[in-house]
Amino acid sequence: MILTVTLNTALDLTYRVPALTPHASHRVTQVIERPGGKGLNVARVLAALGHETVATGFAGGATGAVLREQLAATPVRDELVDTAGPTRRTVAIVDATTGDTTQLNEPGPTVSAAEWTAFRDRFTELLDGASAVALCGSLPPGIHVGAYAELVRLSRTAGVPVLLDTSGEPLRRGIAARPDLVKPNAEELAQLTGSRDPLRATREARGRGARTVVSSLGPEGLLAATPEGLWRAAPPAAVKGNPTGAGDSAVAGLLSGLADDAPWPERLTRAVALSAATVLSPVAGEFDRAAYEELLPRVKVTEESARV
Fold first, then answer.
1. CA 181, CA 161: separation in Å to the nearest integer?
2. What is the C-alpha separation between 253 and 129, in angstroms, rounded?
3. Radius of gyration of the chain from Cα atoms?
4. Nearest-5° Cα angle at 277, 272 to 280
5. Which DSSP symbol is given to 263?
6. Which residues 6+ apart lie within 8 Å of 130 measured at CB?
7. Nearest to residue 84, comparing CAs of 114, 54, 105?
8. For residue 257, what is the DSSP state?
């Protein structure tokens, strides 16, 4: 079983408009509502790939009830913890002409000390039987900035491999707790290390405590600093579409490869193909299966050094 954690879940709304023009009224041609937050996106992709997946985190209020109702229609097992405050909403506005997306993210409910304790207890119980855990996304108000570091340490104590996908100070503190894998994007990596050179920043991030660092380079693919070496993986060509959830699909690909004990080239191939197939999907945060299967044999993976 793969466990995903989304401390700041969301009810994702996607509005498609013919063209997005600032300071103008728009006629929405399509509305899509679905459970969201980075960890839930990861969980849905893993379940679609056939992995037993459990999702935990927080949900509350009317939006939380809708989120859980929709999650129940998926193969993902719901182990979310109730909060008094309502789950946030996120709004993605997709320009149908250009494919560009404008994202609006609410901050999330304030989590009380008692709710955090209840979650931590649930998380500890779920680690028993987990083959891997993913800690994903932002922290809602009320949760201390070292929360992910605490969860990394709990995972390591339980002997469960842990992936961390967050940003800012939670990433800085979390990486010092020595997760097995972190997956920052280029901007998050630059904020962490102060370097905008992907190779240098990836190496430096690994030196801060993570066993492996997989950096997202957007349309150029992934750069991975692992104990076995340094790898680059890229799609056969840049893809255009809605990038919402593409990074989460990459995380799912990495976790899928970990669960199957696949070698690093295969893990990175899955991650890149899933990410590109998500950009090509008409629904934000889901992947186009036909595109995924077509891309898999065409992803290019190169090893750049034997050791890092």
1. 8
2. 20
3. 18
4. 135
5. -
6. 1, 2, 3, 54, 158, 160
7. 114
8. H
Helical ranges in 49-197 per DSSP H: 61-71, 113-127, 147-157, 168-176, 186-193
What is the widest separation between alpha-carbon atoms in the chain? Answer: 56
Q: Is 248 a catalytic residue?
A: yes
In the chain, what percentage of residues exceed pLDDT 90? 68
At position 137, the amino acid (one-letter code) is G
CB 268 within 8 A of CB 212: no
Question: pLDDT tens-digit profile of 75-103?
Answer: 999 999 999 999 999 998 988 888 788 88
Side chain identity at residue 304, one-letter code = E
pLDDT of residue 306: 45
* Phi/psi-derived region of residue 265, left when phi > 0, alpha when psi is between -120 and 50, beta in every other case: alpha
From the candidates 248, 260, 261, 288, which is the catalytic residue?
248
**127, two tokens:** 């680690």
**What are the tokens at 213?**
């660092």
Give the whole-angstrom CA distance, residue 109 versus residue 159: 31
List all residues 6 or more positions away from 135 whose beta carbon is below 8 Å from its beta carbon.
5, 39, 148, 151, 152, 162, 163, 164, 165, 166, 174, 179
